[in-house]
Amino acid sequence: MSALRDLTRTALDRAGWTNIASGRRAHTSPHATLNLHGIP
Question: If you placed Cys at 34, which of 5, 15, 24, 39 could pair as Cys (CB 3.0 to 4.6 Å)?
């Protein structure tokens, strides 16, 4: 079961989907992700 979860997570990561703190998945650029966490 965990292997399936890891495969899904890897596929989403390669597609550009990033997990954010709220647990939702959002298509964000790296710059937007850093701003989300308060990193300039």
Answer: 39
